[in-house]
What does this fold into?
Amino acid sequence: MTKTHAHFIRYPELFPGRLAGEPCGALVANIDFSGGPYHVHGLSAGQRAAIDPAFGSMIIDSVAVATGACVDVAVFRSGSFDFLPPVFDRGVYELAFTYETDSVSVSGPSFMGRIQLGETTRAALWTSADTAHEFPIVFENFFRLLVAYRLLEGRGVLLHSAGIVANGEALLMFGPSGAGKSTVARLSQAAGYTVLSDDLNALSLDSGALHVAQVPFAGDLGRVATRCVRVPLRRIFRLKQAKVHGTTPLGKAESIAMLVAAAPFVNSDPHRADTLVGVIADIVTSCRVESLCFAKDVGFMSLISSDSAQGERVDAV
Amino acid sequence: MIELAQPYRLSSRCRFRVVGDEGVVVRLDGAEVVALNGIGAAMLELMRDGTRTLGDVAACIVERFDVDKLVAEQDASEFARELEEAGIVEKAGSP
It folds into this structure.
């Protein structure tokens, strides 16, 4: 069942209409990330400390706030009474959204947020300052949504995928839940390849070329806490488990349909549907998409990266 | 069989984009994307604005893809029925 704000907020009719409120504190975190940087302010001491484990090495001293390239993220205080106790349906974790032409509002366990889209993207997060222990989850939930929208504005996309580096280039492997993203990531990691993420990767257009960036979100292979790594994109594969390894080309339309399904958050937003399809159409025009049938051994990497050296390392930029 | 004199148009709840010689339909309500092959994309492009009957669509397909007229008419009817059931097209003139 699709969640509504009433699942998370005691008074959904009072959802803030403007990016305004009382800051939780006076601390700041500037996060250097694909599509950003992000200037997060209004943090309490507890909140600021709580985001360090996941974002620590992405936090930079200052950002060029005046350029407009920076995303302003205000953290505002809300009473813990404003939020309803979270209810998980069969372990499925969902957020509630309201999509408008120039904004998207979101609510989830212990938070509500709004992203104002336009020439200068701005965002606000309302949460309780008294529950800093919840803040890493709250911030991650909000930040991944923000990243998805910010990337789309820059003609990029956040993709449910496994990102593996071979010979200094990224191979993105996507598919529905159970397709084998974590399996290929584990097999590749065991064979010495660098795994960017086995869950979410940021695909962005930097200087006219597609790059894959590691995201600071949890996947089955655990959290990463590294300075934003960007690797040129080489190829994209749609995963399918099989008895033998093999690849077959996918048509453009089929590739677009499948990749749209793998682009979380923005693929449910009717106001951004045209943009998303256009961005993904550009991506499949410049990068080949193939179906990868793989058996449960790392032999598939030889098939798709025959000129790649095993044990490839990628250093942070 | 659907009446060949009937025009169809793209639903206002869908977006359609031609990609190369194929097509992509986005259903806004379900966040679902449907891929169309070359003939499917050409047929939907012809139906899109609701100004052509299925007979007109079939005639264009005969010209463009060098297929038999009867086959094109049957394909256009079947395709329109499938798209209508999927909520992708609606009868032109309907509210």
